[in-house]
Amino acid sequence: MSTVTPEVPESSLEYAADLAAVASLLQIGAELGVDGLLDSGDSFDAAELAGHAAVPQDRAAGYLRALAAAGLITDTGTGGRFRVSDDYPALRYQAGYVSWAMNANGPFITNVREFFADGEAASRHHRRDGRRVAVSSRWIGERAFYPPVLDRVEAAGAQRVVDLGAGAGRLLIEQLRRDATRTGVALDISEAACAAAREAAVQAGVDDRLQVAVRSIESLVDDPAPIEDADVIQACFVMHDVNQDPAVLDAVLVRCREALAANGFMAVVDAVSYAPRPRERRFSALFTYLHADFMGIRLPSEQEWEDKFRAAGFAKVQCVPQVFPGGRLFVAFK
């Protein structure tokens, strides 16, 4: 019996090999903590990278050599200084999907037999690394789901914006940079993320207009003070976590509607369960499966998301498919 090897287009092989290499090289930078230096767009040299990562300079130089050989950074011609390539943002975005799938969710994959045997016990022992989740989400989000929210807020001329599960605050800080009269509240349960948001706000010169609150989204049910009179309440891929207890998510949405200013709206980007469209079905299948079977989070369908907003009393709900496979932007008007 002969074995026939199916032909794979050369372009697909090249793309797969390139994506694997880019994802691995950028993940090394993220693990070293120099992803912020690369993302800044500023020039740098081996000494600066070594100082940033607290590693020997010769090791930093070796890493830069690999990045340059891969075309991810280019020599500026000024004494060994480099800056990222023009296509670095696009490559980082693509690498974000690999990083999320294989690194952010690495504990699930590596310990899959333990999860299959006893999911509750395994989840107590094998937790995801918050930074890895945040890094991969940022690499994807800055291209896949931040822009539609930015556009909605700009079009509305919103003056007070609250970001639920804001992480390091990049989206909200960009919104404050775009309008010198805009104020914002970044709410996140992670003290480390909130500290990073405060630091980033200082660097961006918007710290006088940004309030950072170390709070869970669920806490808004009993104390909605951070969201009172907001023109926009936004949340990117965090509300499905609240849906671990659907009744709590329902209560949060009610509080958000009540707290919004008269013409305010919520802008929620999140995932739907097993999105069927050909372009998104594979990644959506992974996203849905990992959340349901490893994190105990059932993703609502598109219709169920819309029903939740309407049940919370929102007058109108719009649903817009996103670049992110399985992602939807729900705009719910008070």
TrEMBL record:
Keywords, comma-separated and alphabetical: Methyltransferase, Transferase
Record-listed E.C. numbers: 2.1.1.-
Methyltransferase type domain boundaries: 162-265
One GO MF term: methyltransferase activity
Transferase found in the keyword field: yes
Protein's organism: Streptomyces atrovirens
Protein name: Class I SAM-dependent methyltransferase
Pfam families reported for this sequence: Methyltransf_12
A Gene Ontology BP annotation from the UniProt entry: methylation
